[in-house]
Amino acid sequence: MTAALANRREETFLHLAGELLVPLPEGGLWWPGQRLLVVSDLHFEKGSSYASRGQMLPPYDTGATLAIVERLVAQLMPKTIISLGDSFHDRAAELRLPEHYAERIRAL
Known about the structure:
Elements: H1 3-6, E1 14-16, E2 19-23, E3 29-31, E4 36-39, H2 46-52, H3 61-76, E5 80-83, H4 93-96, H5 99-107
Parallel strand pairs: 4-5
Antiparallel strand pairs: 1-2, 2-3, 3-4
């Protein structure tokens, strides 16, 4: 178990088929026995999608979401990361994604 999880109370853990799974407050799931991090519904470029329709959201959503995932990776050091889906907010999100964010995603 990593130091990041050492102070968590046991009742916040799940036991499934004899395996320990840890729901993370950031929204992910950690499977320490496999060093596997599961994330979903990241919705990269949600703010730019809304902005294109005249609805303003702060334009920092992609950077903030990446920072959370990067922090989890640094703390947990997973061997594998699984993104279950809804990584991009819409079909054109990848086209709007700034290159510096794309580089950070590739680095994960």
